[in-house]
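Batch manifest line 490
LIGAND: protoporphyrin IX containing FE
JOB: complex structure
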Amino acid sequence: MYPTLTSLVVLGAAWLIYKLLSIGRRDKSLPPGPPTLPILGNIHLIPPKFTFLKFSEWAQEYGGIISVKVANQTIIVLSDMKSVKELLDDRISETSSRPFLYALDVVTGGNVFSFAPADNHVWKTSRKAIQPLVTPQAVQTHLPISETETTQLLYDILHGPEVDFRSHVSRFAFSFITSVLFGKPAPRYNSPESTQYREYTHQLLKTVSPEAAPVDLIPILKYIPERWAPFKQLWRETRRLQRALYFSFLEHTEQKVTSGNKTGSMIEDVLRRQSELGISRELTGYLGGILIDGGTDTSSALLQSLVLRLMKSPASLRKAQNEVDTVVGKKRLPVSSDVSALPYVQALIKEIHRMTPAGPVGVPHAAFTDCQYREYTIPKGAPIIINIWGIMHDPDLFERPDEFWPERYLLTPDGTRPGIEKDYNIRSTLPFGSGKRLCPGMHLANMNLNLAVMRLIWAFDFAPIGGPIPQPEKWNVADEYTYVRANLIT
Ligand code: HEM
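JOB STATUS: finished
ARTIFACT:
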């Protein structure tokens, strides 16, 4: 007996409906998570901003490792330190890849090592090139730049207190990083390179935002011709702006090298070792550019958050000022070596990393192949998000986690509740990520931020001066992140 055409059509339709309805459903092998809707999965539950707040809420309900369904895709969210340690820190050979983002790949031609899988040559060559330049010892060679830039930061604030504080700080963070990398400072907020950088990052954020064009969810969108796909024009423009910025900096350094006016910058060093490293000019340009991207807004956001916090906590500011005044006095500026004699200032910096991490959800990792963790399957390529904010606000680890209380770091080295067992694995480097992908700029950032914080506290009082923005005392965490910068990876 042969099936009739009608029965084939009915069977086919039933299969199609079954398949469609299974889109968005959570497979039993995945970690738990919020209930799904057919096709949507959890899309309707995910807020467009401050996702870390929702992830933290879900962690309370479903546990430290959850899965979130975005149509047919799966996102894994880790909100406890134990799973970050076991899955990311300890299993780097399996989980140090990145999820593939089509738009980013088109824009950058796959040259961005911060989003390349850790087994490909872009990542390996780029990290090898910078590894000797970012050690705690190596970054000390850039201390004079930090001293110059922090001095200018004080000067700018002193002579322009009416200018939005954020402009001074973002100039400082950008100029420090471009000086270290390329030997080219940006002396003004409106220096051409600073303006170019802001225009480019603004464009890049539009490009990678899922609302721009969800090509990773709906791959067929890739095939729409450019004249009907405004998002492809956006990609093209972003590529143009990115290359213009990255390669103008590279050319600047190349010219310095050719004319014998070396500055000791990091990219000069990479150019010197170019053939030994087997790194092309193209990849060198992207390497330098990615480091600008990684190093600017992170440091800027952290400093801005700190100042905001000190305005909300005048008692902490006073305590830090007293400490600095006692150790440093009024006759000289704080210098890098002072920080070890300033435990309260150190605690303040740790507390701001905890309260408002610059990247509250870090940068997603991914597994190279399907892998097993506890009783769960972690699907190949699925984003694995570290909910850094959530872990740093875990009430089991931190007493009164929502309170700005630097003293917690004077009571215990990790700021955790006194007396709790050490098997929670928290580490002070968590705000810088995990495993093989741990932030390569960590020591450089710490050196510069330590000096900036000491000097700001030494030089100024901070208080709101009114104006159109609401008084910071009333702000909640979302307001703070919004104010600090629109560019955070949330
Ligand atoms: C307050 C300062 C900073 C914070 C909080 C921070 C945080 C982070 C985090 C959370 C990650 C993701 C790590 C992971 O995937 O697990 C990361 C990666 C990265 N950061 Fe930073 N960062 C800072 C400063 C810097 C600086 C100064 C640079 C450049 C000099 C930099 C360059 C990078 C790069 C290139 C990556 C990607 C690494 C890779 O994928 O292999 N960051 N950072």
